[in-house]
């Protein structure tokens, strides 16, 4: 049921929607920006709001659920498209469009109850409204728009056509609800003077629309189709008086908006709003009025702007509107007359036009038959002509092919011919010299080109060509056999020569792996021949690779074993020194008392002292003496072994650390693995294409500046750079191996650009060869690590530096095999050093303190600076992972030491406070202070000495942090010690003036305070007379001298601190006497000068 309140609420809501979302087709930019601000940034639509109803929605596609408040809006765009919107309003009273449908999307409309209806869109929606009249008006307008603008009108459920004829024929004409509540709703609308279809135009437009005469006469009777009560449409034709009234209402709104005189614009005879009759149309008249309202709204939405309309008529707002009205009415009558005349003339010309069209169609049919006949004739002639042309072309092609065939046969016979002298080169030319190898490769390349050429099926069946190919295949097979046999013997001979090199047996010091380098230099010249075998006889190439791996494995195994054995004396130097009765140098920088104990204990059980590696003590001393002799004659150790050994060995110095020996051995092994991988890739042509192309570009650029070939040859060579390497290209363009085997090759992408994301590593076959060649490398490295860290685990951090350096060298390269080996070794060394640090921490925690008597400096106070110096000597200035590991070890050890000392100080003070009258507890506290002072002095002195001599600049900030911490603890202990030792000579004096100081701080008079009066002051001064103070200072010095009898430097520092504290207290005493006891004229019995003289006497 409709009511005025519901209508008012609906209009207010429509006004809000119009301001925020649908601002009209003629809205300005300012109006659009204002609407965007009101809607919270949402872009408003340039559409005209025609109708709206507030509903509660229940989505049938999701089953039962809570109803949601929504708004259904019908709008029209400038292009006359009608759209249905579903709008939701959030908590901030801002509207937002959630769904939009066109009229074609409406599949069905169903009325269920006066306030309930459903729409079938993309799925079924149920809506419930509060007012039946609003629902009826909204659905009526939606039905009309669907009938007029939808391609296929929707189904109507519980509704019937507005005319009986439409209902009978199933027409989708104008429909409206026919239910029991319609008449009641209309009666309620009449009683309340509310139209059946509510208007949601702005107030100005609404008042003008309400001025329309509801009782205007409509056209009745039957139409041309026989449907009664159907009124003719007036859109596009001459308008009646009602249309003129609508036009005048629009003009009235425009004039009012622009400040014109509205009364001058309203024509005579049109009733105003007050003169409108009160009767409201009923039944079908309501329906027709709804259609008129809809037509007027659409016309107004797409009407030209008022400025353009009145501009065409040359009218301005300040001119009499009656003239404009008369002119407009004249134009309208003229248009209506023209329309009637055109319709009458058209009715006369239609029969004649139809007859002429029928005659034209008949003529066209006759012409079509003729054209079909001509087309068939032309197609037949075209087939005959095409056949003749094909025969002529075939004859020409056949003649040309016969001539070309003769030329090709002559060329083939010429190109597949090799002279007998060239063939003899393959059999008899020497393969030992470089010139001989080049001549053989040139002839083999020609032979390869001939065998690889494809003369064609016809030429291949020629007897001459067939015989030549068989002959060349025979020579090719024999040459492959010769190359394979020669290289097999050459590989064995050269490698066996390096294995049996007797010059290595007299090398002193560390014996390096050098045999493979000599083999590589000799064998690389056969790279072209191995490429020949790879292309012509792959089985022989694989067998040759296996032979090379077998021979080189023996060479690497022997020389790697010699390398490890030559490093043993430097790894076991500490052990043999301790076994010979010398001091254990490891204990100087290790906190654990077990370091090196295993070696000395094993040596005491047997006079022969067999080491774990099987070398007896006598052999060890012989090796050491040889090393010393070599070092005296050859100078200090230098990588490469000196000129006398040609880089076969390294003669180290007598003081070489195990980590240094390990670094030399590791560097040699890493270099051997890198060289071997690169050499295998070059010799057997397993180099990735990216590396090959990059190297060939470099070679081409170098050789291009040296040779003076023709322009065509250089262009051809550059064109071949992008192809795979074949034996023919190898020889023709003089391609050389990449070489530079000692340098790791970077990972390249397919374009030859260095890329860290590409991970080819080495080729699969090369990896397999490396596994066979260096299968024992992991074991040998583990042996070196175990020997180097057996008696001094701290050497692990120095070894880790060498491993990190090797990993940094291989970073970003294709040395995947070597990187895996080094990473495994790095993990083992890191674990070894962490275990060593944990052992040192346990040794510090296990230290037992005896404070009842002074025991001097504790071990860790003396060892900590040496520990830092030792570790820094091993790792040096490096940014590798060893630096972070070492810094972590320093932090852990230093924190443990300082925590131990500070906890000892706190425990002694708590014990003394709990036992104030216990002399033993006070004595124990004093002994603790003396002990801590000695330890902190030793630690600070050691750290300062290392900073002054030996510490490098990069480590100074870290060392300063430990030194600052130690000095803070030292000052704290010094203050506690001074407090204890001054308690005996000056304790009473200090306590008295401390009480005076507190009394003055509380704003009290000490003379009026108990125990601080004049008499008490006099007793205190008499107890500390001149002679007593001199004697007390003398006894104090003797006591301090007794405490630090073994540390004269520390005693001087402590006495100086005591002197400064006594003088500071004297100044405080004098100041307090002047403030609190000035009226007594009392003073101390000694002066500051006398006090300084007594203190400086000692």
Oligomer state of the chains in this structure: single chain
* DSSP summary, beta strand count: 12
Mean pLDDT rating: 74
Overall morphology: flat
Major pleated sheet: 8 strands, mixed
Strand arrangement in the largest pleated sheet: 4-3-2-1-7-6-5-8
Strand coverage percent: 5-15%
Radius of gyration: 57 Å
The structure class reads alpha+beta
- State the helical fraction: 55-70%
Poorly predicted runs of 5 or more residues:
160-241, 257-283, 301-307, 596-646, 704-722, 755-761
The end-to-end distance, rounded to whole angstroms, is: 118 Å
Number of helices: 38
Q: Could you walk me through the main structural features you see in this protein, from its secondary elements to its overall organization?
A:
This protein is flat. The strands form three sheets. An eight-stranded mixed β-sheet has the order 4-3-2-1-7-6-5-8. It has a two-stranded antiparallel sheet with strand order 9-10. It is an alpha+beta fold and 1098 residues long. The longest helix is centred in the middle third of the chain and has 95 residues, at 321-415. The model is unreliable at 160-241, 257-283, 301-307, 596-646, 704-722 and 755-761 (pLDDT under 50). A hairpin with a 5-residue loop joins strand 2 (68-76) and strand 3 (82-89). Helix 30 (859-875) runs antiparallel to helix 31 and helix 34 (983-1001) packs parallel to helix 37. The protein contains 38 helices and twelve strands.
């Amino acid at each position: 049921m409709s009511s005025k309140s519901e209508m008012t609420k609906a209009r207010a809501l429509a006004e809000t929607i119009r301001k925020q979302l649908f601002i009209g087709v003629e809205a300005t930019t300012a109006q659009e920006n204002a609407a965007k601000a009101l809607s919270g940034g949402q872009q408003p639509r340039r559409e005209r709001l025609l109708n709206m109803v507030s509903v509660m929605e229940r989505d049938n596609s999701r089953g039962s659920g809570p109803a949601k408040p929504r708004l259904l809006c019908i709008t029209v765009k400038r292009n006359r498209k009608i759209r249905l919107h579903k709008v939701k309003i959030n908590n901030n009273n801002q509207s937002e469009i959630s769904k939009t449908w066109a009229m074609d999307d409406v599949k069905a409309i169903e009325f269920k109850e006066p306030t309930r209806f459903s729409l079938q869109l993309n799925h079924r929606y149920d809506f419930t409204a509060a007012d039946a009249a609003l629902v009826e008006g909204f659905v009526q307008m939606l039905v009309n728009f669907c009938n007029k603008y939808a391609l296929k009108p929707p189904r109507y459920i519980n509704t019937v056509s507005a005319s009986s004829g439409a209902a009978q024929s199933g027409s989708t004409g104008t429909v409206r609800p026919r239910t029991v509540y319609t008449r009641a709703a209309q009666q309620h609308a009449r009683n309340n003077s509310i139209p059946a279809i509510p208007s949601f135009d702005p107030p100005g437009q609404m008042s003008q629309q309400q001025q329309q005469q509801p009782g205007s006469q409509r056209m009745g009777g039957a139409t041309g189709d026989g449907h009664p009560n159907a009124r003719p449409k007036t859109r596009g034709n001459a308008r009646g008086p009602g249309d003129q009234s609508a036009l005048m209402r629009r003009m009235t709104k425009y004039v009012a908006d622009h400040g014109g005189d509205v009364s001058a614009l309203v024509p005579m005879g049109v009733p105003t709003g007050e003169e409108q009759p009160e009767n409201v149309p009923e039944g079908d008249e309501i329906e027709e009025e709804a259609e008129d309202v809809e037509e007027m709204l659409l016309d107004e939405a797409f009407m030209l702007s008022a400025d353009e309309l009145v501009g065409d008529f040359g009218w301005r707002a300040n001119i009499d509107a009656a003239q404009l009205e008369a002119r407009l009415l004249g134009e309208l009558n003229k248009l209506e007359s023209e329309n009637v005349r055109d319709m009458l003339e058209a009715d006369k010309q239609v029969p004649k036009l139809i007859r002429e069209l029928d005659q034209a169609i008949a003529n066209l049919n006759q012409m079509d038959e003729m054209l079909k006949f001509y087309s068939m004739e032309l197609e037949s002639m075209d087939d005959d002509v095409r056949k003749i042309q094909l025969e002529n072309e075939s004859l020409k092609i056949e003649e040309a092919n016969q001539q070309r065939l003769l030329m090709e046969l002559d060329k083939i016979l010429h190109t597949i011919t090799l002279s007998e002298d060239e063939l003899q080169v393959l059999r008899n030319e020497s393969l030992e010299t470089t010139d001989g190898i080049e001549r053989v490769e040139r002839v083999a390349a020609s032979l390869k080109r001939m065998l690889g050429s494809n003369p064609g099926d016809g030429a291949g069946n020629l007897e001459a060509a067939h015989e030549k190919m068989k002959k060349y295949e025979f020579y090719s097979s024999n040459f492959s056999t010769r190359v394979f046999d020669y290289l097999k013997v050459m590989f064995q001979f050269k490698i066996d020569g390096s294995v049996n090199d007797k010059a290595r047996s007299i090398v002193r010091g560390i014996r390096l792996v050098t045999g493979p380098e000599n083999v590589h230099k000799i064998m690389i010249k056969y790279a072209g021949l191995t490429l020949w075998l790879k292309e012509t006889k792959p089985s022989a190439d694989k067998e040759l690779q296996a032979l090379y791996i077998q021979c080189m494995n023996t060479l690497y195994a022997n020389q790697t074993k010699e390398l490890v054995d030559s490093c043993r004396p430097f790894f076991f130097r500490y052990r043999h020194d301790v076994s010979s009765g010398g001091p254990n140098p490891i204990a100087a920088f290790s906190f654990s008392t077990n370091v090196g104990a295993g070696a000395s204990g094993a040596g005491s059980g047997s006079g022969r002292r067999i080491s774990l590696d099987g070398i007896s003590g006598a052999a060890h001393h012989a090796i050491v003496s040889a090393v010393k002799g070599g070092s005296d004659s050859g100078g200090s150790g230098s990588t490469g072994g000196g000129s006398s050994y040609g880089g076969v060995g390294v003669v180290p110095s007598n003081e070489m650390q195990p980590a240094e020996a390990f670094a030399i051995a590791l560097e040699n092994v890493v270099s051997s693995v890198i060289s071997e991988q690169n050499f295998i890739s070059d010799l057997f042509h397993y180099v990735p294409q990216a590396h090959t192309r990059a190297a060939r570009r470099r070679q081409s650029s170098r050789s291009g500046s040296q040779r003076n070939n023709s322009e065509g040859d250089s262009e051809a060579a550059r064109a071949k750079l992008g192809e795979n390497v074949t034996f023919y290209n190898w020889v023709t363009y003089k391609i050389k191996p990449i070489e530079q085997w000692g340098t790791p090759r970077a990972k390249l992408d397919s374009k030859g650009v260095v890329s860290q994301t590409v991970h080819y590593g080495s080729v699969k076959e090369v990896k397999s060869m490396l596994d066979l060649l260096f299968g024992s490398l992991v074991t040998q490295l583990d042996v070196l690590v175990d020997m180097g860290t057996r008696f001094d685990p701290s050497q692990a951090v120095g070894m880790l530096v060498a491993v990190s350096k090797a990993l940094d060298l291989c970073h970003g390269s294709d040395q995947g095999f070597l990187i895996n080996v080094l990473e495994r070794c790095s993990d083992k060394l890191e674990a070894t050093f962490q275990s060593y640090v944990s052992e040192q921490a346990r040794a510090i925690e296990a230290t037992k303190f005896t404070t009842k008597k002074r025991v001097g400096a504790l071990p860790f106070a003396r060892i900590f600076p040496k520990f830092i110096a030792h570790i820094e000597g091993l790792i040096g200035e490096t940014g590798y992972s060893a630096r972070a590991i070492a810094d972590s070890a320093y932090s852990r050890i230093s924190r443990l030491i300082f925590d131990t000392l500070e906890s000892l100080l706190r425990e002694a003070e708590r014990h003394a406070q709990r036992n104030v009258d216990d002399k033993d507890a006070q004595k124990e506290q004093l002994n603790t202070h003396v002990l801590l002072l000695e330890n902190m002095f030793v630690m600070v002195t050691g750290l300062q000495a290392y900073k002054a001599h030996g510490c490098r600049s990069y480590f100074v900030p870290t060392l300063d942090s430990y030194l600052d911490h130690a000095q803070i603890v030292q000052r704290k202990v010094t203050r506690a010690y001074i407090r204890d030792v001054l308690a005996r000579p000056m304790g009473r004096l200090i306590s008295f003036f401390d009480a005076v100081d507190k009394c003055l701080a509380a704003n009290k008079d000490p003379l009026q305070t108990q125990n601080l009066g004049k008499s008490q002051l006099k007793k205190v001064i008499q107890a500390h007379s001149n002679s007593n103070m001199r004697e007390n200072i003398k006894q104090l010095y003797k006591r301090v001298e007794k405490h630090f009898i073994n540390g004269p430097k520390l005693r001087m520092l402590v006495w100086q601190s005591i002197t400064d504290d006594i003088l500071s207290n004297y100044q405080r005493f004098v100041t307090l006497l002047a403030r609190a006891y000035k009226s007594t004229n009392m003073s101390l019995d000694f002066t500051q000068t006398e006090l300084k003289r007594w203190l400086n006497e000692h």
